[in-house]
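Appendix B. Chain record.
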Amino acid sequence: MIPTTFHLLELTDKDFQTIREVLYEHCGINLTPEKKELVRSRLSSHVRRNNMRSYTEYIDMVLSNRNGQEFVTFINRLSTNLTSFFREPKHFDYFKSVFLPERLARKNTGPVRLRGWSAACSSGEEPYTLAMTLKESLPSGRTVDAKILASDISTAMLDKARGGRYPADRLNTVPVDLQRKYFKQGNDQGEKYFQVSPTLREMIIFKQINLIQPWPLTTKLDFIFCRNVLIYFDKETHRKLAERFYEILNPGGVLFIGHSESLSGIQHMFKSVAPAIYVKS
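Structure tokens predicted for this chain:
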């Protein structure tokens, strides 16, 4: 029986502090006090679903098994997943007009190997945009082996990304010619949707990765997109991530972060070449 007083339940300061500590410890997200109401709203349905009489009771249940599905749901609900196709388009302009020509010029003849990482891919729009950009920009006369690792901490978002199915309005930022080329239109009970084509999906490997834990990467990378993620971390986490990104990139590799983010104020070895774009020299 669902408690009739559910609507009166409040997230106490103590409960919120516990959540802040767990989230920071598990995935580095640094919740500010202003996020308290957002946290309450995102967890309220799960408190109700589990027939809990307080947030304290719900938190205790979640933390009793950090390998359980409810802990996964807890993390999924509290991670932010705002994204879109061709978001912050100047990054993709640089990617196709500067990065790719320079990378291809490093090996004038023969096959070229490119490896990249969309390090917070959310529901998949970013890695699919990268795949489209690669398909449209690579010269037809060159053999290029290109793969993109797409990761997120949220298993729910990764499931959506793997599915590659989007409501029609999600493609408003995709040029019509690319819609026709890389998506198949469908209809589900009167709702139009677009399905990503296999030619894009075959370039991408989806995997759950927690950025502050060890990364299961076995090869050096040529580019990393880690955009609009650093804003949720503190400066020390920024420094550690920048160091790890630098280490895993090939010489000349590029790191793209969000336009609202910066590596200023921390020690790092990257060279800034454009707003929110850094190169390993």
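Further analysis of this model is presented in Appendix C.
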